[in-house]
Amino acid sequence: MAHQDVLAAHPIRARRRLPLDWLGIVPFAAFALLFLILPTLNLIAGAFQDRDGAFTLQNIVNLFTPSIMAAYWISIKVSLASALIGGFMGFVMAATVTIGGLPGWVRSPLMTFAGVASNFAGIPLAFAFLATLGRTGLLTAFLMNVFGFNLYSTGFNLLSFWGLTITYLFFQIPLMILIITPALDGLKKEWAEAAASLGASRLQYWRMVALPILWPALLGTIVLLFANAFGAVATAYALTGSSLNIVPIVLFTQIRGDVLQDPNLGYALAFGMIVITGVSNGIYIWLRARAERWLR
User: Fold this and answer.
1) Its domain of life (predicted)?
2) pLDDT band of 45, cuts 50, 70, 90
């Protein structure tokens, strides 16, 4: 009899507990709805409307004009370059502190710095690079005064494609370190020992065992770095202004001054960015899931 009473009371307790269990994520859900989901839906709707609010595909067609396509292409090249270079350098740094021969105490300061630097962007980052690598920057003046080397005589310009790419590396490399380190920790020592016992060299172990296992995580993280750089606007605008015509700057200029005299084209620009970053993040999630199955 008592057992039946417990079973009968259990669903009631579960029903009473359910609202309290979900209450903790209400603030997050509210912020996501107000500042992410609703604005995104508004952008998507505006991309397919004309000035009078009628449905049209002309805004999407206008994205394929030469000037806008050039802006997308520059953004893709900057994002891809910073993702590939940052991914390689971040992977090497993470590997040296996880499975390399560096002392164990190096890992903690590196991970702390990576956590801070991966979120250091926008105007402060642009100012830091201008103060360091600008025409009158600290490093530029040091190279000139001490070694007589004029950095800008080589064709380098901080307000250019490679200047922006180098600036992006400041937060791309730390982000790569943070994301790829757990995957490197997942490599079991027994795999390396088994490969060594079978006569495999260190290079053969990496080529035939470690890299195939890490490959989904590596590709997924590089795709995430691409999306991270593609959506960055504050750093690019503060560093280069309008001298480098990337999509976020074109969109930012449209929002501030309506230079294109077509607000709905601005919505279409944002919609194009949403599609590219959404596809990138979808690929990252898929590759990440494949990597986690291997590393369990």
Assistant:
1) Bacteria
2) very high
